[in-house]
Amino acid sequence: MNTGTLVTSLVLAVVIVVAIGLLIRAMMRGWRRRAQRQVELIGKLPPLPDTVSQTIIPPMKGLYVGCTLAPHWHDRVVVGDLGYRTKAVLTRFPEGIMVQRSGAHSIWIPAESVTAIRAERGMVGKALTHEGILAIRWRLPSGTEIDTGFRGDDRTKYDRWLEEVA
Fold first, then answer.
1. Residue 32 sits in the same domain as residue 77
2. Same structural domain, 101 and 153
3. 116/147 Cα distance (integer angstroms)
4. In a domain, 123, yes or no
């Protein structure tokens, strides 16, 4: 390799690294700005209850996909740690629904806040070939409706969740 080719290759490598760095910075800035816009919409989440009754639907392991502003399944909620995918356990109680997430805060969805539970093909960048995401639509104390997505490890258990609302 001659000197001209080496210099050109190094300059091109530096330009690519700088472009990638600027792209990552722009993505992070966009994520932070989205969070700032959503703070008022989301407000405070309902607190976890001190005690709950017996389970109506036993715990189901799976993946917490994320929350979106209803009805836009691509408009991810990024306030706090609601925007991060993580392993989770979904449980139904008479008082509401508990989403216990690993590495993140648990989410409590009061029963009176749930407006719909349905199976979806996709949500927040997670698309499946069949209806594999359980979407729980509920109203926050702030009045905003959001969809919480959960992909269960055993999708045959979805029928029980869908029957419970009907």
1. no
2. yes
3. 9
4. yes
Euclidean distance between CA atoms 46 and 35, whole angstroms: 19
Indicate whether 86 and 143 sit together in one domain: yes
- pLDDT tens string 29-53: 987 887 788 887 888 888 888 888 8
**Rounded Cα–Cα distance for residues 107 and 130 (Å):** 26
29 in the same domain as 79 = no
3-state secondary structure string across the chain: CCHHHHHHHHHHHHHHHHHHHHHHHHHHHHHHHHHHHHHHHHCCCCCCCCCCCCCCEEEEEEEEEEEEECCCCCCECCCCCCCCCEEEEEEEECCEEEEEECCCCCEEEEHHHEEEEEEECEECCEECCCCCEEEEEEECCCCCEEEEEEEECCHHHHHHHHHHHC
Tokens representing 1 are 């390799």
Taking the C-alpha atoms of residue 93 and residue 114, their distance in angstroms, rounded to an integer, is: 12
At 113, list the tokens.
């806040």
pTM above 0.85?
A: no
Q: Which of 101, 98, 122 is nearest to 110 (CA)?
A: 98
Enclosing domain of residue 2: 1-42
Torsion angles phi and psi, residue 8, rounded to 5: -60, -45
